[in-house]
Design goal:
Layout: H1 33-42, H2 44-63, E1 69-77, H3 99-110, H4 113-123, H5 129-132, H6 141-160, H7 177-187, E2 190-194, E3 200-207, H8 210-268, H9 270-308, H10 322-325, H11 328-348, H12 356-448, E4 453-457, H13 470-495, H14 502-509, E5 513-518, H15 534-550, E6 557-563, H16 570-583, E7 588-592, H17 600-604, H18 612-616, H19 622-625, E8 626-628, E9 634-637, H20 646-650, H21 653-663, E10 669-673, H22 682-686, E11 692-698, H23 704-715, E12 722-729, H24 735-741, H25 749-756
Parallel strand pairs: 5-12, 6-10, 6-11, 7-9, 7-10, 11-12
Antiparallel strand pairs: 1-3, 1-4, 2-3, 8-9
Length: 757
């Protein structure tokens, strides 16, 4: 009968009514601002109340707040190196500390109790009416309102939580409890605001008295500047005092060291010992050089001697040694021998061996050989003599070197005490000179009175308070009120998970919507046979049209009407739907199948005598149970007596036969009012036996989870089709939504025209 888009998949055996016309499921609509404003309009009373309360509370807070004036002075905090005097104090460690920790330290000093104590004493706040409580209380209406608000706030906070006692800062040793309280109260209005990327700092003071705010800001800047230089001078004076005392002690120590050195010189002739030590060292160096030279010469001559010692002077191979072959006497003897050998060779060709000339030359050659051997022997002896002389010289120098080393070691042992005393005296003298230089530098630095803090801008008396700011507070209050009002409305809408709009049915429940039925105010149940609002009657005529155009052409169409839970208006919907069909000329049978709590007879205005229960148990015939109404096309079968077993009766064979007979009977429509699905299973039993099910959902009263659960239960009975009627829709409350999507701003157009006619 209906074109359904159900959550489940179609099951075997399900059949659609032949010739049924599809009823399209609503497509998703784009979200419009009016859709959001609908939630605000629906909860307009709650949102408006929240808006008024928030704005009122915030503005009462604004106008009852004591005005606070803010004044500021500006100081420049330079690096510590700006106080450097030439190169005198260039090595001060304070000049090379990191800038970040240094400036954070200065900001803390500006808010310290020490600086606050200086300002409190300078301003004599102990006798100031602004701080000692001696000022007369104001009596103007605004001040009284402020006092009342403060008292009310304290009382409310006392009811909610027990306030912990405020712990006052413990007084320092040089201040009383009263002065400690004054310092804490004074520092409560102070704030330090460094200017980014600069060395400028604003000293801001807030107070209800603008003159005092300016005075306090200026006094803080002055006292901070003075305290900065006082601390530096105080540290310098402490250092100078310590240096003076240390210089006296170091001077005495230096005098004692130099006296001990002088006494040692006199007793041990330390000065001559030092000169002798210089001579011994020089002599030791000379002997070391000579011993080294003589050892090298001896080694050289020893090598030559060792080569010639085994050589034979009569053998010509000895001439291969350079020292022998290069000797002038040996060369001369060899030349003479060669000359004679040549002469003998010339005579040998002309004379015999016994010739006098040959004998003479032979004798000369023998003499030349003996001379050559003699010369060679002289060279060997000369080398031997040179080696022996070098060896003797080496031994002499080595002996002298060992003697000189012993003398030097003796001198070193004797001069040890002297050097120790001299080093101590030199160290004491250096320390004394350093301390004396630092004392003079600090004296110059102290006299310079350089300060790295300067006051750049002095505070002016403010003319306008920083708080409260009525213009800003009004804007803030309106924005906060709107935020809370909208948030509350949207929150209520979000928390409310009931079915409210057709989109909830088509998107959430995934079922087609047959129609909307508006809510009718009043205790009386609206029935179309009586006077009802035009839009109510028009809604059922529209519902009738949906049923007619979405149903098939079969002779009798049986429609079961149910809901998820009681009080959603299913019985009223069934009665008015039957009346609307009857008014349209169709023959309609209305059956009350709610055998547990029947109420259809009350709505239609009939007696609940013989009814459906009598038919199902066989105690009556159909003609006995049918009752006529004032509408000739509508007849009714009431529930009858409440049976002990309703479910068994509705699932009985008689019920099946009864419905089968109705399907081929004389009626065009059969409307069956069934119990709620979540209460009992009666509607599930009847659902597969009828042409279709009309599921009534109470707008803004049926939770989505209940509706989904009821539909899941109903679909377990495999109904042929299900359509939904959204009942008791409050068009006035959801005006923006229904005017945008359904044009209900024109709902009374024809009704007004007919009334005018």
């Amino acid at each position: 009968m209906f074109d359904t888009q159900e959550v489940r998949t179609p099951m075997p055996g399900e059949v659609s009514t032949p010739g049924a016309v599809s009823l399209p499921v609503s497509t998703a609509q784009s979200t419009h601002i009016l859709d959001r404003l609908n939630a605000v309009f629906k909860h307009r009373r709650l949102a408006g109340t929240a808006f008024v309360l928030v704005v009122t509370a915030m503005m009462v807070q604004t106008y009852s707040t004591i005005p606070v004036f803010e004044a500021w002075s500006r100081v420049q905090i330079q690096d510590e190196r700006t106080t450097q005097v030439g190169t005198l104090n260039a090595s001060d460690p304070a000049f090379w500390q990191e800038s970040g920790p240094y400036y954070q330290t200065q900001y803390s000093i500006l808010q310290s109790r020490g600086l606050g104590r200086r300002v409190v004493r300078r301003l004599d706040l102990q006798n100031s009416p602004l701080f000692n409580g001696s000022a007369p209380p104001p009596r103007d209406p605004l001040s009284l309102a402020r006092q009342a608000r403060a008292a009310a706030s304290r009382w409310i906070r006392g009811l909610i939580t027990k306030p912990a006692p405020a712990e006052a800062a413990p007084p320092a040793r040089d201040e009383s409890a009263q002065e400690a309280a004054l310092i804490s109260a004074f520092l409560g209005g102070l704030s330090i605001r460094p200017e980014p990327n600069s060395r400028l700092v604003r000293i801001v003071y807030a107070h209800s008295d603008p003159n005092f705010a300016a005075l306090a800001a200026n006094m803080l800047a002055d006292e901070y500047t003075q305290q900065n230089i006082d601390l530096r001078l105080q540290n310098t004076e402490k250092t100078l005092k310590w240096l003076g005392e240390e210089l006296k002690r170091q001077e005495q120590q230096l005098a004692a060291s130099e006296g001990a050195l002088t006494e040692y010189r006199e007793r041990n002739n330390a000065l001559s010992l030092e000169d002798r030590q210089n001579i011994v060292v020089s002599r030791l160096n000379q002997l070391n050089e000579k011993a080294t030279t003589s050892r090298n010469e001896r080694l050289s001559k020893e090598a030559i001697y060792n080569q010639l010692r085994t050589a034979d002077p009569s053998n010509d191979t000895i001439d291969n040694f350079p020292i022998v072959g290069a000797n002038s006497a040996v060369v001369e003897a060899k030349n003479a021998l060669g000359t004679l050998s040549g002469q003998k060779a010339s005579y040998a060709g002309r004379y015999g061996p016994e010739h006098p000339k040959m004998i003479e030359v032979t004798d000369q050659i023998e003499n030349a050989k003996r001379r050559l051997i003699a010369e060679r022997t002289k060279v060997v002896e000369s080398v031997k003599n040179d080696y022996n002389a070098a060896l003797t010289e080496e031994r002499s120098f080595s002996s002298q070197l060992e003697d000189q080393k012993g003398t030097s070691m003796d001198l070193d042992r004797k001069s040890g005490d002297y050097k120790l005393l001299q080093r101590k005296a030199d160290s004491d003298r250096q320390v004394y000179q350093t301390l004396l230089s630092q004392q003079k530098e600090l004296a110059v630095v102290a006299n310079s009175r350089a300060n790295n803090v300067q006051v750049l801008d002095r505070a002016d008396v403010p003319s306008v308070p920083i708080s409260p700011n009525p213009r800003r507070d009004w804007i803030t209050a309106v924005l906060a009120g709107l935020t809370i009002a909208f948030g509350l409305a949207f929150g209520m809408e979000y928390v409310d998970d009931s079915v409210k709009t057709p989109e909830d049915i088509t998107k959430r429940l995934r079922l087609p919507l047959l129609g909307l039925v508006p809510a009718v105010r009043g205790e009386r149940v609206p029935v179309l046979t009586e006077t009802v609002p035009h839009d109510f009657g028009e809604a059922f005529r529209s519902l009738r049209t949906s049923l007619v155009f979405t149903s098939g052409a079969q002779s009798t169409r049986i429609i079961a009407v149910t809901s998820s839970q009681p009080l959603e208006g299913k019985t009223t919907t069934a009665c008015n739907l039957a009346l609307a069909l009857a008014f349209g000329g169709s023959r309609v049978l209305l059956i009350d199948a709610d055998l547990r709590r029947p109420g259809l007879h009350k709505t239609i205005g009939l007696q609940n005598g013989t009814g459906l229960s009598h038919l199902l148990v066989g105690q009556a015939r159909v003609r006995d149970a049918v009752q006529r109404t004032s509408e000739p096309n509508l007849v009714v079968i009431t529930a009858g007596r409440i049976p002990p077993n309703p479910s068994e009766l509705l699932s009985s064979e008689r019920m099946n036969s009864f419905l089968a007979n109705l399907a081929t009977g004389p009626f065009d429509w059969v409307i069956v009012d069934t119990p709620p699905v979540l209460a009992v299973t009666d509607a599930v039993i009847i659902a597969p036996k009828v042409s279709g099910v009309v599921f009534v959902v109470g707008s803004e009263m049926t939770r989505r989870v209940h509706a989904e659960r009821a539909l899941e239960t109903l679909q377990s009975g495999r109904p042929r089709s299900i359509g939904v009627v959204l009942n008791r829709v409050d068009f006035d409350r959801n005006k923006y939504y229904y005017s945008r999507y359904y044009g209900y701003q024109y709902k009374n157009y024809y009704g007004q025209t007919q009334g005018a006619a």
